Amino acid sequence: MTTTKGASEWSDIGKMKTEADGSFKRGASSFRSWIKTGTEFAPEKNRYHLYVSYACPWATRTLITRKLKGLEEIIPVSVVSPHMGEDGWPFANVDPFPDADVDPLYNSSHVKDLYFRADPNYTGRFTVPVLWDTKTHTIVNNESSEIIRMFNTEFNDLISPEKATIDIYPEAHRKEIDNINEWVYDTVNNGVYKAGFASTQEAYEKAVYPLFVSLDRLEKMLAGKDYLVGNTLTEADIRLFVTIIRFDPVYVGHFKCNIRDIRSGYPAIHTWLRKLYWNNSVFKDTTNFEHIKVHYYWSQTKVNPTRVVAVGPDPDIKPLNAA
Question: What domain of life does the native source organism fall in (predicted)?
Answer without folding.
Answer: Eukaryota
